[in-house]
Amino acid sequence: MKIVFATNNKNKLAEIKEILGENFEVLSLNDINCHVDIPETGTTLEENAKIKAEYIYNQYGISVFADDTGLEVDALNGAPGVYSARYAGGEGHDSEANMRKLLHELEDKENRKARFRTVIAYISAEDTYPNTDKKQDTNTTNKTEEAEALLFEGICTGDIIKEKRGETGFGYDPIFQPTGYDKTFAELGHEIKNKISHRALAVEKFANYLKSKV
To answer: Which of 68, 94, 133, 137 is catalytic?
Structure first.
C-alpha cells in the first residue's frame, strides 16, 4: 500500500518505515516533489497534524498522514508541548539548545515526570468517514470537506534525567527515560525504542486501521 508521510525529517521517516514494515510503501514530501514548508500554526498537536495532512490532500488528492509530537513535562504545566521542536527559539529545530533549556528549567524541580505524545492525522483518498454527511466529489478543490481526518494517539510516560545519556535517536531522546527502563531512549537504541515509544504506539494503532482496510 502506497501512502505519503507529510514530512522530510529523515529520522522520523526512517522510524515510521521501520515500524510500519514492508506492507506499506511510505513516501516523503520530497518523493512527491513537494518542497513547501507547511506552517504549523495550530495550538495543539491535533491541529498541527491535521493542518499538514489537509494541505497535502488538498494539493495532491492522495492518501496522506502527518504527525505532530510533543514532550509534556508535569512541573512545567505541560510545556514545551506543541512547541517542543522549537522550544529554545531561533532558526530551525536545535535539539541541543532545546535540551539545555529544558534541563535549566528543571534544575530546582523534584518532579521530573513527563510524557511524550504523538498524534497522527490520516486522510484517505479512497474513503469517506462517518462524521460527514457529504458525498465525495472528485471535482471539488477542497477535498477535506468530504474526507475528514482520522486521529491516532500514542503516549509514552517517563522522567527527564539530569544529564544527557546515549548516542542514538534524536530530539529529546538523550534526556528522556521511559517508565520501566533504566536507560534513555538514546541508550535503548532503535529496535527497543520503536516498540515502546509514543510514535510506535500511535503508528501501531494507525497500521492496524490500515490493515483492516486492505
So the answer is: 68
